[in-house]
């Protein structure tokens, strides 16, 4: 099974997050890693939507979560047995496959029970005294297992019969004395070319007479068998072998355990682990949505390598990563933020630098590999840098960003200044987000300091008039996010790219006003002149003042 690696940014992705994921996946594919796929952990915001549409670049694969599912660990080449198969056929499957549990499936592939090796062993190796003679079978199953054919009788009915087996290997008088106490309708007589036994059995009107060793019914007895309605089966096996096989002709339907543990293929691997370990189940049947068998999961399934891995871009903290990331192997991290709690069981490639955009780092990887992105990808990486550095005005902008912009301008054919103005002009209206909830959540990130967790979103605008009209609704949306996520404070940076000023709308602890150190225009609202960067200016300041409240 090939492993897919998803290149993915943080939740509530911004342009830098999605552009760097697409750009780095394209580089990996150019380097020959064909199973690398760009992904996103949230839907594009209006700015990113404008850029993707303008450049005619398809959206990355949307992954709401990457929690490992049952389907990721099971083999879909399950060894199964049908209800009509015999115990002998089931034992052959156990022997050839090495499995310990066989799902019993119906004609459309739905399980009706399971057959365990333990159950079948107990039935045939450790039977009670009264069951030593017992043969539970059907006429078709008996003939198939014995490799025989019916001389008379032997209809196609699959009804089960419970018979008492006697071997006709003694004198007629002794033999008749042995079977006298058993109802003739329940008797299965097995003998070779012994005319006296064959005739005595037929005259008694036994339910079934099996002639072993490849012999035929003795001359003159066929009409009598038909008259007495005795079913006669001929088998090539010797009597000892035929007796053993007859007991193993029991259809699986009579041996299966109807109660079994099951789980949907779309359910979590954690749920499967609980069923296998907590309930001490030997196997759990994984089912498709329509109830058909998808595979069989055992404890060894929990050790199966997952078929996908992650490369994180534009973040390195699991709190910001796509849900479920902590359960996967992370191959690489490319980020320009402070170091968090990246998760890996093995040494990985970790690329970080104090630059203005992750797209700068991705472009740098192209240059290190001696490659160039194509025209579209170059324009996308350029857009990511211009977005995250606010057209190179943000205090996070470095000389490396500026040099990278010049390089990408040449490849993409886009003039950075004009392209940047187009990007922000096209998406400066808060109405583009569709709702106040979307404005708040579109680029919302969580940060932790000691016992406090805060959340800060950011949007760029041209002028604050529209913000003031929506302010109360935005504040209510922040209050709901704070309550839902249990945050100490929840804030929204509204940054005017023309005046390089940010209005910070915040819902949180009342004492924050005394330590904010920026002018408070009104309750919940602060003016932050010359503040444009959440990463370099706003969040460090908030984390510092948390110690004071």
Please provide a written account of the structure.
A hairpin with a 5-residue loop joins strand 14 (284-287) and strand 15 (293-297). Helix 12 (375-388) packs antiparallel against helix 13 (399-412). The protein has four domains: 4-67 and 307-426, Alpha-Beta Complex (inorganic pyrophosphatase (n-terminal core)), CATH 3.90.1640; 69-130 and 252-300, CBS-domain; 139-250, HprK N-terminal domain-like (Udp-n-acetylmuramoylalanyl-d-glutamate--2,6- Diaminopimelate Ligase, Chain: A, domain 1, 3-Layer(aba) Sandwich), CATH 3.40.1390; 430-546, Diaminopimelate Epimerase, Chain A, domain 1. The chain is built from 18 helices and 24 strands. It is an alpha/beta fold.
Short description:
By secondary structure, this protein is α/β, with parallel strands linked by helices. Strands 3-2-1-16-17-18 form a six-stranded parallel sheet.
* Silhouette: elongated
Oligomeric state of shown chains: single chain
Q: Indicate how many domains the architecture comprises.
A: 4
| Helical amount | 25-40%
What keyword list fits this structure?
alpha/beta; inorganic pyrophosphatase (n-terminal core); Udp-n-acetylmuramoylalanyl-d-glutamate--2,6- Diaminopimelate Ligase, Chain: A, domain 1; 18 helices; 24 strands; 22% strand; elongated
Write the layout of secondary structure elements.
Layout: E1 4-8, H1 15-30, E2 36-40, H2 46-55, E3 61-62, E4 81-82, H3 87-97, E5 101-105, E6 111-116, H4 117-125, E7 134-137, H5 139-146, E8 149-152, E9 161-167, H6 172-179, E10 187-191, H7 195-204, E11 208-211, H8 222-228, E12 231-234, H9 239-247, E13 262-264, H10 269-278, E14 284-287, E15 293-297, E16 308-313, E17 330-335, E18 349-352, H11 358-368, H12 375-388, H13 399-412, H14 416-426, H15 436-441, E19 445-449, E20 452-461, H16 465-485, E21 489-496, E22 501-508, H17 512-515, E23 520-522, E24 525-529, H18 534-546
Parallel strand pairs: 1-2, 1-16, 2-3, 4-5, 9-10, 10-11, 11-12, 13-14, 16-17, 17-18, 20-21
Antiparallel strand pairs: 5-6, 7-9, 8-12, 14-15, 19-20, 21-22, 22-24, 23-24
Helix pairs in contact: 1-11, 1-12, 11-12, 12-13, 12-14
């Amino acid at each position: 099974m090939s492993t897919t690696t998803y290149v993915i940014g943080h939740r509530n992705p911004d342009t830098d997050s999605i552009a760097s994921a697409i750009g780095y996946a394209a580089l990996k594919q150019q380097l020959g890693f064909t199973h690398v796929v760009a992904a996103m952990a949230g839907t594009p915001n209006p700015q990113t939507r404008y850029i993707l549409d303008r450049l005619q670049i398809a959206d990355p694969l949307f992954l709401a979560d990457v929690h490992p599912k049952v389907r990721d660990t099971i083999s879909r080449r399950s060894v199964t047995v049908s209800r009509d198969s015999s115990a002998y056929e089931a034992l052959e499957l156990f022997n050839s496959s090495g499995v310990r549990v066989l799902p019993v499936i119906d004609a459309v592939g739905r399980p009706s029970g399971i057959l365990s090796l333990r159950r079948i062993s107990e039935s045939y190796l450790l039977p009670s005294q009264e069951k030593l003679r017992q043969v539970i079978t059907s006429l078709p199953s008996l003939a198939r297992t014995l490799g025989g054919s019916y001389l008379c009788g032997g209809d196609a009915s699959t009804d089960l019969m419970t018979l008492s087996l006697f071997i006709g290997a003694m004198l007629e008088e002794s033999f008749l004395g042995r079977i006298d106490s058993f109802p003739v309708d329940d008797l299965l007589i097995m003998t070779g070319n012994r005319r006296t036994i064959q005739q005595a059995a037929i005259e008694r009107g036994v339910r079934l007479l099996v002639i072993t060793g490849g012999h035929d019914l003795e001359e003159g007895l066929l009409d009598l068998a038909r008259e007495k309605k005795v079913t006669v089966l001929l088998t090539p096996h010797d009597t000892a072998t035929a007796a053993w096989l007859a007991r193993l002709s029991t259809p699986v339907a009579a041996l299966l355990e109807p109660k079994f543990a099951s789980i949907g293929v779309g359910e979590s691997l954690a749920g499967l682990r609980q069923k296998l370990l907590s309930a001490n189940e030997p196997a759990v049947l994984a089912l498709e949505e329509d109830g058909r068998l998808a595979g069989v999961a055992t404890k060894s399934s929990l050790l199966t390598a997952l078929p996908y891995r992650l490369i994180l871009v534009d973040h390195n903290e699991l709190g910001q990563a796509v849900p479920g990331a902590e359960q996967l192997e992370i191959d690489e991290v490319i980020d320009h933020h402070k170091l968090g709690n990246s998760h890996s069981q093995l040494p990985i490639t970790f690329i970080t630098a104090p630059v203005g955009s992750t797209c700068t780092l991705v472009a740098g990887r192209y240059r290190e590999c001696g490659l160039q992105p194509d025209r579209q990808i170059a324009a996308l990486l350029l857009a990511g840098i211009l977005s995250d550095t606010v057209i190179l005005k943000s205090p996070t902008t470095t000389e490396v960003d500026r040099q990278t912009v010049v390089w990408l301008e040449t490849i993409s054919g886009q003039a950075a200044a004009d392209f940047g103005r187009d990007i922000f002009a096209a998406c400066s209206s808060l109405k583009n987000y569709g709702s106040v909830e979307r404005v708040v959540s579109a680029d919302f990130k969580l940060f932790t300091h000691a016992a406090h967790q805060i959340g800060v979103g950011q949007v760029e605008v041209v002028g604050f008039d529209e913000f003031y009209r929506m302010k109360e609704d935005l504040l209510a949306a922040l209050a709901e996010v704070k309550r839902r996520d249990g945050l100490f404070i929840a804030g929204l940076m509204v940054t005017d790219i023309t005046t390089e000023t940010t209005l910070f709308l915040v819902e949180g602890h009342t004492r924050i006003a005394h330590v904010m150190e920026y002018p408070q225009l009104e309750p919940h609202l602060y003016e932050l002149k010359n503040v444009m960067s959440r990463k370099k200016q706003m969040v460090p300041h908030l984390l510092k003042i948390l110690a004071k409240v």
